[in-house]
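Marked as duplicate of an earlier ticket. Keeping the data here for the record.
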Amino acid sequence: MIKFKKNLFLFCAGGLGYNLLEIVWRGSSHWTMFLVGGSCFRVIGSIRRHFPKMRLIPQCALCSASITLIEFLSGCLINKKLGLQVWDYSHLPLNIFGQVCLPFSLLWGGVSILALKADTLLCRFLDIPPIEHRHSI
């Protein structure tokens, strides 16, 4: 139960952090972005813990690709299927169905640096140990 509470705290921290980032960036946010942001933050934390020796740039590239995939799938559900029209990148270059685009994918790489650091600090605060990698011979 304690592990669940710690994971829930990290999810909520990521959701709140993303909502605040979006409010600063564009002046508003949507409740669904709390869920998307929390999911992305948990994935970023998993990447950090599963690939602790990976250099920062490849780690950020993996985070960016993961965020872009989550954003695409979320956009197809939230914007297309449910019709909530939370975001639309169709006016931006190199977009896919208006749900993701290259400029924001690159931006997610930069945001990942902050998210990786935040996850590190929060895991220390919550006393979540690093993952031990065991290699079999």
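See parent ticket for discussion. The chain has a mean pLDDT of 95.
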